[in-house]
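User: These chains co-purify. Model them together.
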Amino acid sequence: MSTDTGKSSTESEVSGLDYEETELKLGLPGGSRIAGSEPEKKRGFAETVDLSLAGEPRSRDPGDRSTDGLVSGAGKPPAAKAQVVGWPPVRSFRKNALKSCTYVKVAVDGAPYLRKVDLEIYGGYQQLLTALEDMFSCFTVRNYPNERRLVDPVNGTEYVPTYEDKDGDWMLVGDVPWKMFVASCKRLRLMKSSEAVNLAPRTPQGSTSAR
Amino acid sequence: MREERSDMSEDEDGGGGSAKSRGGGGAPPPFSDQVLENVLENVLQFLSSRGDRNAASLVCRSWYRAEAQTRRELFIGNCYAVSPRRATERFRRVRAVVLKGKPRFADFGLIPNNWGAHFHPWVCAMAAAYPWLEKICLKRMSVADGDLSLLAYSFPNFKELSLICCEGFSTAGLAVIAEKCRHLRVLDLIEDYLEDDEDEMSDWMSRFPETTTSLESLVFDCVGSAVNFEALEALVTRSPALRRLRVNHHVSVEQLRRLMALAPQLTHLGTGSFGSAAAAIPQGGNNVVDLVNTFAASKSLVCLSGFRDVAPQYLPAIYPVCANLTSLNFSFADISAEELNPVIRHCHNLQNFWVLDTVRDEGLQAVAATCKDLRELRVFPVDPTEDSEVSVSDVGLVAISEGCRKLRSILYFCQQMTNAAVVTMSKNCQDLVVFRLCIMGRHRPDHVTEEPMDEGFGAIVMNCKKLRRLSVSGLLTDKAFAYIGKYGKLVRTLSVAFAGNSDLALRYVLEGCTKLQKLEIRDSPFGDSALLAGLHHYYNMRFLWMSSCKLSVRGCNEVAQRLPHLVVEVIRDRDEDDDGEFVEKLYMYRSLAGPRTDAPPFVKIL
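Assistant: Joint model of the two components:
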């Protein structure tokens, strides 16, 4: 693949002044981006999207990004770009350290071990919780009107799935759109319901934090 | 008697010394000459620079022998330039070895796995020849656990191991090093890739000697797996000489605090995650106060790095040490200008600063306002793709150039740049030795004038008279290279990507840059005739890399025939068929050893 992109880019170079390298073009000629566009703020999203946890339709997700008023430059271009190997020249150690690593640890209150899940492989909250249920096979999922809880049938203890986001706040799982959750979730904790009362109840705005 | 000379001239890097060396065999010199040689050895032992030593070795046979006997540090810039046997036969009393392997573009995935640069034959030769070896530094070598084991068992006085951008070993190898190298002072693992099976990790941290250790430096921030923290704590406790400690991201800020309390004498600290590991809700205020006090007690800290998962509320803890810092690496810290400002404001003595572009131009302006002594700046992209948002730009570059006049080295990733800004930097920062600008969009012109970036880079080579290393990017025509060839007389390392219009560009460089040592080119329209324009110079270079250019087998063959001491490797991507005429990747280097025997099937040596 690098062969192809190498050849095509050099061919357009030979013609000299042609800026329209079609398959590699990103934005306006000259490549200038709209500098004013701010990175997405999660609270902005939460305000525009009302989410119910159960049965969240997947098709929402691309739609979420278009409901905000930001210039499309702020999001990633939807079309898959031709990736050139090794460009920009950043070492993989650095790339891996910085990229939103979607592997998160899952801790269960009272259990001495941690598990890891890759959030990206799940399509939504439903699948994630099912996976957790499988993983910590002692649990069964109990459905509440607005939440899911996991229950240990042996002692009846209820667990509420919570997560720590990028800001270090602990939130209830399900408060924000799935994609945003994947982007901001750093670790999961199945917290005993009795302790979870300290977390703010879910509101339409979603992202309030507990201290 | 003069040592015979070959076509290969000496340069600083020598790939093992002068050409056509004769090991020191033959009849022993007469007695008076022997006395002279002894005297000479006593004098030459004070020569440390390898450039000087290489020159001294060329004076005559006697000097050659004396120099060979007194060289303590052996630098091999390309592990394939000379055979281990030959190197160890000539230099018999070496105590320290520096060995470099793969070309730099390997870091970016351009070289398939198993290409080579194996440490194994070197460690075997050294184990036999240098029982008193103390230091080994490897860069971009393939190192197996067995090699580390052999190292640990072969050198009873071993003191310092530095592995930079290496791969092939695991924590099992580290365990043997820890256990067997009882006099270890330095274990520096820098951007290595460890092979670690999650199920088979070794608790290497527990394997250090249980007595007081001589450890001065322990750097393991690249190790992906968690270490045994209790063992680490215990190790720090019994390592009174420890000055440099860089932990990996599994170490939380609470754990870090405990380590720092045990080692207030640290000068270099890698902070690990600098975020909280506690599953519980962080205790907020108390933790920060404790941390501040701990930093305040670390009065010797001059270098800080890490901050891999930095929780912004902990950043103020480092204020007490900022004024003493000469080096600060925030290049993994996703922080904004607002978060940077209160930190950088205190860093008046900063000389090295690495940062992410999340701080934007405003952040760089803050740096420029305070860090008047800055020598090296690196700005990395948080999102290393061609279409990420603009965060730093020509604005930041100009600010830095105006505030940091003593700048010597810059690496700057950006999405947009102007010639004017680069010209400004060339005028403001006359001390620049290293200028590496990476405009991430390929072929991207000046974003204001839409012109190519020729004038900017031209100004750099024209005005920065000490420039030795240059990386170019953006839309560049042959003109840029004409400038480089004309003015870049001291340039030793040049990196080119997606640039130039024709063979002329490469010709300008090969004909003009008389000190060129390392040339790496990708995706640029340079063909055989340009390649052949460098025949007069290739023996003076460490290597040439060209990938995705316009080379053919015919042209490369001609180079190989005309220059018998050049190893010309044509590298295919694994799943490619034999391409026939077209050469996708060319790597060529001078060598005394001839074609290597360990080449994998996808490498063809012409």
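Chain B touches chain A through 65 residues (CB under 8 Å).
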